[in-house]
Amino acid sequence: MLGWLRRDPAHLKEHRRRMSDALLDYPVYAPPYRQGPNYPRHLQIKGEDVYGRLLREFTARGRENFTYFLEQRNARLTALGIFLAKFGVMMGIDDTGLAAVSAWCPGNCGALVPNLRLDQTRQAFFQLLEPWTGQLRGLNVIVDLGVFLGECLIFRNQRLHWIYRPGTSDDGSSNSSGFQIDGFKDRRDWLDPIGFLYRVCGNDEVDLRAGAVGRSVRSDALVGKVRDFSTR
Q1: In the prediction, which pLDDT does 103 show?
Q2: pLDDT tens digits along 52-75
Q3: At what angle do helices 48-85 and 138-156 cross, to 10 degrees?
Q4: Which of 120, 124, 106 is nearest to 201 (CA)?
């Protein structure tokens, strides 16, 4: 048996097995380039000119990834809807569909991928370090839940839209997707729906391990987020 299964309590092992069956044919999110939103600052040792050129190339690849993301939104939402239907959830960006997806998250989204709170898993997600297959296939669902959340916001507030916002970090590591919702009245407001969903899933994994579903992730978590940010 795989190590990550041995470390899970019995009830979570069983939940992961059922989830794995539902994920068998879930489509892999495959952007043109395997890179995250942050460029590593340590490459400045190569010199200012070289670093500037590499950064511009990195940003151009990121924009291609963003274009791919925008073009794939409908296909990703279709895949998510088919997946959630296996659990009896009728997904939709209207209030009823949003409430159904939000209610599904507690007790389920934390079983999508093992060890979500480990930095190794987090960086595999945000930096797109490898194709999300096998134990990581559930990461594709997390991206699509983030797409769903973002589209729910845009549906309710036509000023809102997706933007690409890259950054830098010491080694390229990141805790955000780089794809944000923008267009709020207050320009200081922003939301990374994909990053938010990753944290929701990580918190639900903790709840599942403890046998305390609903303690950290409430059934109206997505509903509340949309209600809050769609009115800003």
Answers
A1: 97
A2: 888 899 999 999 999 999 999 999
A3: 90
A4: 106
Query: Which tokens in the block code for residue 130?
Result: 């490898």
- Residue 201 CB partners (closer than 8 Å, separation 6+): 105, 109, 110, 112, 113, 116, 142, 145
Q: How many CB atoms lie within 10 A of CB 25?
A: 9
pTM given for the model: 0.92
The CA–CA distances, whole Å, from 72 to 21, 84, 123 equal 24, 18, 22
**Structure token pair of residue 184:** 């709020």
Q: Determine the pLDDT at residue 2.
A: 42
Residue with tokens 């990753």: 198
SS3 137: coil
Tokens of 122: 């987090």
Q: Does residue 5 surpass a pLDDT of 80?
A: no
What would the DSSP string read from start to end of 161-175? EEEE--EEESSS--S
